[in-house]
Amino acid sequence: MSSYSGNGDDEYHLRESLDEEFPLGDGTADVGTTVVCPYCGASVEIALDPGSGASQDYVEDCEVCCQPWQVTVHYDDEGHAEVSVTPLGD
Ligand SMILES: [Zn+2]
Q1: Residue 28: predicted pLDDT
Q2: pLDDT tens for residues 9-63?
Q3: Are 46 and 37 within 8 A, CB to CB?
C-alpha cells in the first residue's frame, strides 16, 4: 500500500530526467515514419511523438485492416527513430 506514492514519484522523476537529457520535443526528431503492417502487408504512415521519450512501446491499429500492432519506438542520439511493428498478443 505504501508503494503507491513511491511509484508515482519514480515515474515523475524519470519523465523529468528524460526531458532534460533528451530534448526531442524541439523539432529535430522524427515525427513520423512508414511501417509495413505484419497482418496485411500494407505500407502505413504513422505519427510519432518524440516528446514521449527515447523508448516507447504502445498499441496502434492498422488503418488498412484494423488489426492491432505492438509498436516499439527507439530514438537514437540524433533523433532518428527506429520503429518496429509486430502482431499484438504473439
Ligand atoms: Zn494491416
Answers
A1: 85
A2: 555 555 555 555 556 656 689 999 999 999 999 999 999 999 999 999 999 999 9
A3: no
Q: Give the Å distance between the CA of 88 and the centre of ligand 1.
A: 12
Q: In what order do the strands lie in the sheet with 68-75?
A: 55-61, 68-75, 81-87
CA 67–ligand 1 middle distance (angstroms): 6
> For residue 90, how far is its CA from the centre of ligand 1 (angstroms)?
16
Cβ atoms of 78 and 54 closer than 8 Å? no
Q: How far is CA 69 from CA 26, 32, 43, 46, 52, in A?
A: 28, 16, 13, 12, 18
- Measure the CA–CA gap between 70 and 20, rounded to whole angstroms: 28
Q: How far is the CA of 39 from the centre of ligand 1 (A)?
A: 5
